[in-house]
Structure formats: C-alpha cells, structure tokens
C-alpha cells in the first residue's frame, strides 16, 4: 500500500477528483494548505502598499492506494492537474504500513 | 500568574474609575464661570454652523415639535449609529490580520457603549449647552432636567442628544484604525474615554455648541473639523507614540478579508446620509442637497481613487475603491451644507487624489504606522473639505450657497484657523492622554508575544475563525 500526497492548484481539485472517480478511487482527503516551490510567492497591493505573500494557497489530496493501482493513480493525477504553467504542484508517494476501516475492522487493501 | 494579571487589571480599573470624575470636576469651574439665566426646560441651543452662517431659519422656540423634522432626525440617528455598528467595525475588521479581527470589532463596540455613557454623564452638556467661549454649561450633566417635552429648535431635545451621541461614538471609533493589532484593551478604553472628554467635547462645543469658532463664523456642516480632523490628527499622534506593528512596513500581512472591508464601507456610505443630511437638523432642502452632494462626492472619489491606483500599481483594487469612497465622504462632510452638485464632483475628485498620495506619504515617508490610514483618509480629507468649502460654497459658484464672493478669502482664513485649532488640541491632548494612559496601564502596548499570538486570543480569549 502507498500513501499519495498530491499538492495541486486549488482550481484543479474538481478535475482531479472527477478523473480519480472514473478510475475507481472511492475516497480521498482534501486539505487546504499553503506553501511555495519554484513558483515562489507573489505580491499584493492594498492602498498603494505592497505586501509580499511567500506562501501560496494550494490543495493537498491524500489518497491511500493498493500497490497495483499506484501507477494508474499517479498518471491520472498528473494528467488532470496539469496546466503546463509554473506552480502546478507535486505528487509525493510514501509507503503505507497499515490501514483499518473503523466501522468493520477490515485491514490493509480490504480497508481501502 | 493568572491571578496576578487579574489583580493588575483591577487596579487599572480602579484608577480609571477614580480619574474620570476628577476630570469632570476639572471642567466644571470653567463652565460655571458663565452663569446662565435661561429656562432649563425650553432650551434652544444654537444649532450648527450652517444655521449660524446662513441664518435662513431662525431658531423657533415653538411648544410642540415638528413631526417631519422629528421623524427625520430619529431616522438619521439610527443611520449614524449604523455607521459604527457594524459599518466601521467591519470596515476596520476586514483590514487587519485574521488573528486580530475580533479585537477590532470589540474596540468599536466597546467605544460605542463607553462614549454613550460619557455623553450622557457630561459630554452632551459640556459640548452642546450654553457656556463660555471654550466649554459648554453643566445644566444637562447626567441629562438633568431633560423631559419628553424639552425641545431643541423644533424637535425633541432627546433626539438631538442621541443624534449627537452617535457622532461622539464614531469619532473615537475612527481612531481605532491607528492602533489596531498592538494596543492593550484596557489602554484602548482609558484612551478613548479621556479623548472623548478632552478633545471631542471641547472641539464640538467650539464649532457646534456656540464656542469661539462658531462665533468666528467657521463652517463645519457635519464634522470635517469636529470629527475627521480631530480623529485624524489624534490617530497620527497615538500611532507615532505606540510604535509600528511587527514587520512594518515590509513584512506585514495584507488585509485578511477585503470582502468584509467592502461590506463595512458600503454600510458607512448609507449611514453617511444620516450623518450629513441629518446635520441639517431638519427635514428640508438643505438636508436633501446634503444627501445628494454626499453621494456624488463618494462616487467621484471612489472612481478617481480606483483610476489613480490602476495607473500607479497596474490593477484596480476593491480595498482601494472603497477607501476612495471613505475619503470622498470625509471630505464632503464639512462642505455638504454649502456646495452644489458640481462642487461635490470637484471635492470628490480632489479627495480621491490627495488622500491616495497621503497614505503613501504617512506610511513610507513619515514611516508612521497609522495602520488603517486614519490620518491620510479622515484627517487629510476632513481638512481638505473644510478649506475647499470657503471657495466652493460661494454663492453662484457651481451651485454653492452661503458665502459671499467678497468674504471667501476671510472665510478661508477662518476655516484654516478652525482646522489648526482642532489639530493643535488633538495632538497636544492625545500626547498627554497617551502618557497618562501609559502610566496607568504600564505601557499601552501588548507584549511581543501577545502581538504575535494575535489580540483575539491574547486579549479576549476568542477566535475569529476556527475549524469546527
């Protein structure tokens, strides 16, 4: 099992969710977050004063997937979240030791 | 630690409570010098600069109130209170960081309550009943002798008291913009209370209560001097004394909710109809024209500010356009009884340009963290309008009325004198009040740790936005 953490542009969330649903992903966690990468921050101007915003708003999706699904899920996220412009985000993949469905007590792939 | 904190807060309160009557007592002998022999129950207070100026309607001492005027003044009163609660509170609340939004709302709300009580206790009497050159009388202290039948001109005195009370609420409320995000709550209360008594009340008497500026013929229809110049000059003074916020100017956080700023500003615009048109103290043509020119100036200044910002920064911003609106409203305020519609366009346009650049000058050149630009928008706007009315109020000039062409120069001198007097009192008195407040509260600023944490949690134990 793997845990995917994908950081994407907030307006791409719907597209990514729809694309993942189509390939059979049945659950995800969405976190509104902030950060910066190569895109860096930006400036905002209020009443003529400039404010530097270092951290840009992003959305992070967390999905636990079985080993056989992993490549398909990554492909789907990369394709559906891509705009080709700087700041599209990143996908991180971590090993996942265990998963338990609280209601039934099912474990591992059964719980996904 | 907690207990200690409470004890010290209690001590501060005790001192505050003891000092307030003391200050009231100080003002009594001055007021008592002018012994009056008038009938307490039928007071006719000299009404507002415009009446004195234009003398178009002699004060009527009729026995029964004019229902039309009474109805309008009741309405205008509600509109002006709406400017502070929640208009100004939301306008200011949206401009600060999310960790300080509640503290700003709390400041505005507390000031509204505190000012009301002070106004009833002695503010009204000292500001608007007959007295000496410098301060009003004491006959209405604790509204002594007021009955439902008491009249101010041709509407109930009770309505006049509460209408004027809403002005006494918003004026210290405006100063909140100077000290947000870093002042102690106790210091805010002591400062605002003392400021109302020492700056607002005398200035109000000088200009509207029949004091020396009124006698000199100053024109301040709805508060360019009394409200905006005093608030602006005091804001700059307390901001300079309090020091800059952490991170000023390069690493500040931007306004946390421009949407809230716009909602608050829009309420201010509507409320300002009561502020300016209500200052006619009658439901008449003067009120109608005041409402019209107020609106025109607001619209013009909003657009002009937006275009200037567009040109300067590349983008037209929401916070910018609504700030332009406030500048246009503050600037037309003293002039709204004398200028015509096209005069209002000129006032609005001037306000949009001058106040925009004033923001930059105060923050970048003077390096004073007048956080929400009270001095640049209200102070500069109020003075600008007060001076411009001397020319735009000339009979026949773009619909102006009330000033003869020959006397425009003299009027300008009187207007400038009025501004200068109000600003001098504001700066000196604010300096002294801040010093006193600081001594009482052990420094008026919160600790660095509390400032970082945000005043919502540090001072009030509440949170503006939380995930449930």
Please, could you describe this protein's structure?
The complex is a heterodimer of chains A (112) and B (468). Helix content of chain A is 20%, strand content 37%. With 112 residues, chain A is of the alpha+beta class. Chain A has a single domain (2-111), classed as Alpha-Beta Plaits, CATH 3.30.70.120. In chain A, the strands form 2 sheets. Chain A has a 4-stranded antiparallel sheet, covered by helices on one side. A two-stranded antiparallel ribbon of chain A has the order 3-4. In chain A, helix 1 runs antiparallel to helix 2. Chain A starts with a strand and ends in a 17-residue tail after the last strand. Chain B has 468 residues and is mainly α. Chain B has a single domain, classed as Ammonium transporter AmtB like domains (Ammonium transporter fold), CATH 1.10.3430. Helices cover 68% and strands 1% of the residues of chain B. Chain B has a two-stranded antiparallel sheet. The model of chain B is unreliable at 22-62 (pLDDT under 50). Classes of the chains: A alpha+beta (112), B mainly alpha (468). At the A-B interface, strand 3 and strand 4 of A face helix 10, helix 11 and helix 12 of B.
Write the topology of this structure.
The complex is a heterodimer of chains A (112) and B (468).
Chain A: E1 2-8, H1 13-22, E2 29-35, E3 42-46, E4 49-53, E5 56-65, H2 70-81, E6 89-95
Antiparallel strand pairs in A: 1-5, 1-6, 2-5, 3-4
Chain B: H1 2-32, H2 49-54, H3 67-95, H4 101-128, E1 151-152, E2 155-156, H5 157-179, H6 185-208, H7 212-216, H8 224-242, H9 258-277, H10 285-313, H11 318-332, H12 341-365, H13 374-392, H14 408-441, H15 448-453, H16 455-460
Antiparallel strand pairs in B: 1-2
């Amino acid at each position: 099992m793997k845990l995917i953490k994908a950081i994407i542009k907030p307006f791409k969330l719907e597209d990514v969710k729809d694309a993942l649903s189509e390939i059979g992903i049945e659950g995800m966690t969405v976190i509104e977050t902030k950060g910066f990468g190569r895109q860096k921050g930006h400036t905002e101007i209020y009443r003529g004063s400039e404010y530097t915003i270092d951290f840009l708003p992003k959305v992070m999706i967390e999905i636990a997937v079985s080993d056989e699904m992993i490549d398909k899920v990554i492909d789907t996220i990369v394709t559906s979240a891509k705009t080709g412009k700087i700041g599209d985000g990143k996908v991180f993949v971590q090993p996942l030791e265990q998963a338990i469905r609280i209601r039934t007590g099912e474990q591992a792939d059964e719980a996904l | 630690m907690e207990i200690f904190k409470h004890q010290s807060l209690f001590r501060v309160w005790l001192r505050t409570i003891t000092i307030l009557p003391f200050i009231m007592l100080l003002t009594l002998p001055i007021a008592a010098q002018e012994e009056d022999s008038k009938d307490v129950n039928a007071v006719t207070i000299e009404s507002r600069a415009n009446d004195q100026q234009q003398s178009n309607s002699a004060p009527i001492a009729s026995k029964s109130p004019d229902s039309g005027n009474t109805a309008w003044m009741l309405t205008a009163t509600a509109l002006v209170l709406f400017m502070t609660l929640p208009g100004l509170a939301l306008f200011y609340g949206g401009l600060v960081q999310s960790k300080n939004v509640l503290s700003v709302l709390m400041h505005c709300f507390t000031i509204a309550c505190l000012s009301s009580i002070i106004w009833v206790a002695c503010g009204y009497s000292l500001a608007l009943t007959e007295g000496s050159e410098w301060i009003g009388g004491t006959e209405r202290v604790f509204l002594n002798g007021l009955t439902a039948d008491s009249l101010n001109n041709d509407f109930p005195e009770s309505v006049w008291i509460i209408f004027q009370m809403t002005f006494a609420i918003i004026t210290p409320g405006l100063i909140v913009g100077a000290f947000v995000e870093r002042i102690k709550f106790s210091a805010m209360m002591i400062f605002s209370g003392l400021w109302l008594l020492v700056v607002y009340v005398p200035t109000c008497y000088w200009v509207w209560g029949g004091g020396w500026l009124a006698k000199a013929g100053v024109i301040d229809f709805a508060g360019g001097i009394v409200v905006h110049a005093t608030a602006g000059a005091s804001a700059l003074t307390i901001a300079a004394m309090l020091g800059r916020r952490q991170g000023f100017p390069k690493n500040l956080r931007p306004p946390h909710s421009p949407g809230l700023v716009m909602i608050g500003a829009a309420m201010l615009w509507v409320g300002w109809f009561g502020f300016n048109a209500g200052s006619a103290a009658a439901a008449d043509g003067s009120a109608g024209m005041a409402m019209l020119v107020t609106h025109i100036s607001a619209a013009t200044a909003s657009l002009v500010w937006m275009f200037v910002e567009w040109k300067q920064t590349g983008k037209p911003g929401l916070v910018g356009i609504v700030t332009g609106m406030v500048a246009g409203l503050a600037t037309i305020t003293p002039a709204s009884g004398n200028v015509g519609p096209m005069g209002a366009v000129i006032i609005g346009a001037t306000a949009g340009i001058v106040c925009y650049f004033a923001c930059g000058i105060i923050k970048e050149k003077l390096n004073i963290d007048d956080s929400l630009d009270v001095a640049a928008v209200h102070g500069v706007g109020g003075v600008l309008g007060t001076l411009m009315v001397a020319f735009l109020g000339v009979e026949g000039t773009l619909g102006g009325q009330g000033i003869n062409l020959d006397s425009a120069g003299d009027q300008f001198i009187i207007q400038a004198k009025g501004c200068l007097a109000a600003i001098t009192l504001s700066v000196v008195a604010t300096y002294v009040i801040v010093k006193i407040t600081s001594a009482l509260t052990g420094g008026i600023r919160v600790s660095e740790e509390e400032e970082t944490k945000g005043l919502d949690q540090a001072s009030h134990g509440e949170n503006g936005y939380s995930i449930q």
